[in-house]
Amino acid sequence: MDTKKIRFVANQPWLTKDSASRPGPIIKTLPDWYTKAEWFVPDPTTGKPAEAPDGGGKMPTWKACPAVLDILGTGYTYKTPCDIEFREDAAGNIHGRVLDAQHQKFLQDREPMPQFFHPRGYHMKHFAWWADWAVELPEGYSALYTHPLNRFELPFLTTSGIVDNDKVHLPGTMPFFLLKGVRGILPAGTPYAQIIPFKREHWESEIDVSLDAEQIRAKKKQNMEKYRKPDGGVYQRQVWERRKYQ
To answer: 125-159, pLDDT tens digit by residue?
Structure first.
């Protein structure tokens, strides 16, 4: 597999390779709830992996699914450069404050966006992140910028967009919504956006309805026999192709 290069270019003169906002592989920011989760269903009496009653070996949990780790670890991340305080006033209005004068422009107040669908459970007033770093990609490549995928514990929701970063090298701003009821400090180094580079290609779709009932049953049976093995892990060992983000 070919290795491509993504360049993160500092947007502020004081930034260094050790800055809290330094972008990097998002796999290095895995949340505690993932790293602490059990790989197999535990026996409630012993705490050790329980055996399936049908003799099928240990029973994998959601953590054993490579698709979950794949989406948590694909691409790169933007991170907050400093601590940020959010508070609600007596009227329920939300306010944000950057706790480092050097990064005052990082957090921007925004008014409601007319005709843009507002996510339920979040404040109408929203903010925007002003990235410390710009992205440069090889010719023919774009980047998806989105909320860190499956990171539902984060108290905000970053909006998504796609940029042709082989042609445009501006840091830009990313609007985000804050969850209602959230108060306190968002610490420096919190991942706020996931960046996934991809090659621009044309695609066309095709619908296949050629299989009859017997063929569908045979295909399901074949898949069950291949992947439903004791202790699981067949897809990860035999099918999954690891991508490296450094």
So the answer is: 899 999 999 999 999 999 999 999 999 999 999 99
Q: How far apart are CA 121 and CA 147, in angstroms?
A: 16
Q: How far from the centroid of its chain's Cα atoms is residue 139's Cα?
A: 24
CATH number at residue 195: 2.70.40
β-pairing verdict for 156-158 and 173-178:
antiparallel
- Number of Cβ within a 10 Å radius of residue 31: 16
pLDDT given for residue 164 in this prediction? 98
Residue carrying the six token digits 């180094």 = 189
In the sheet with 107-110, reading across from the earlier edge strand, the strands are: 107-110, 126-130, 173-178, 156-158
Residue from 63, 64, 77, 61 nearest 27 by CA: 77
Residue 52: pLDDT band (50, 70, 90) is confident
Is 67 within a domain? Answer: no
Query: CA 6, CA 246: separation in Å to the nearest integer?
Result: 9
* pLDDT for res 60: 83
When divided into structural domains, the chain yields a total of: 1
* Cβ contact 73:25 at 8 Å: yes
